[in-house]
Amino acid sequence: MNHAQVLELDQVGFHWSGSHRGLGPISASIREGTLVGLIGPNGAGKSTLLRLIGAFWTKDAGAIRILGQDVTALSASERAQRIAFVPQSLETQFDLTVREVVELGRLSQRSWRDRWAFKGGLAANKLEEILAATELYDLKDRPFNTLSGGEARRVLLASALAQEAPLLLLDEPTAHLDPGHAVKFLNLVREMIQKQHITVLMAYHDLATVGLYADVLWVMNHGQLILEGSPDAVLTDPRIPEIYDANLISMLHPRNDRPMLIFP
Ligand SMILES: Nc1ncnc2c1ncn2[C@@H]1O[C@H](COP(=O)(O)OP(=O)(O)OP(=O)(O)O)[C@@H](O)[C@H]1O
């Protein structure tokens, strides 16, 4: 077992029941402290892969290991200690405030007894730090159900950050965020990688931005992982415009020389 590998996918395969369509086999791994951008056209299988890694859905074949342990062998609270997941959308019927939703991220790692008692949550200073970093402090006592789409998304991100899990799975985390909040969020993720050595797998559609933040890109198409490598290599690969069926232009960011793909 190699401890530097936070996530290992070993011939992972999946089919929807009653359908011949599915995913894989996919083999890949992510080293500690890496931000992997997961790209690919609509329907490529990105969200499905994230759900399989988070064990929300169960693979049919192969193995998924987090820090050397098979995800399917972990209890729900053991999984929550290792994986934080922000799905594309979440509708809640619960009448919770912003502060409570953020604290729930942390409580998901605790036993049900502690969760019922709201015990073992975040230290107050840590909670304040996360609320401030996600610019939610002024909203902290608002009912979650009254927030705008972008505000609600920031709360879900804050809740995942509060979980302080070594692997963070993000499904289109900045969808619904305005550019200012999107950049702040991506910078916050990079800061957490630097300070807390977390590892991130992030499905992302914006090809002009993903190469500015990711260390590695994985490209999915038709349920397969077809390409992986540095943003420089992947974003200049001739297969990318083909799989998106778009006339994309490859260029370097004028300030930092990081690779970007833009539309003509
Ligand atoms: N229950 C299901 N039965 C059959 N096919 C399904 C089922 N759920 C999802 N799919 C299909 O699986 C494929 C992969 O979906 P997935 O949501 O993983 O793609 P994605 O890459 O995340 O797409 P997007 O960029 O649009 O979010 C899609 O074609 C989708 O229609």
From TrEMBL:
The record's keywords, sorted A to Z, are: ATP-binding, Nucleotide-binding, Transport
Among Pfam families, the record links this protein to: ABC_tran (PF00005)
Report whether Cytoplasm shows up as a keyword of the record. no
- GO MF annotations, alphabetized: ATP binding; ATP hydrolysis activity
Where in the numbering of this chain does the ABC transporter domain appear? 7-247
Q: What is this protein called?
A: ABC transporter ATP-binding protein
Query: What is the scientific name of the source organism?
Result: Sulfobacillus harzensis
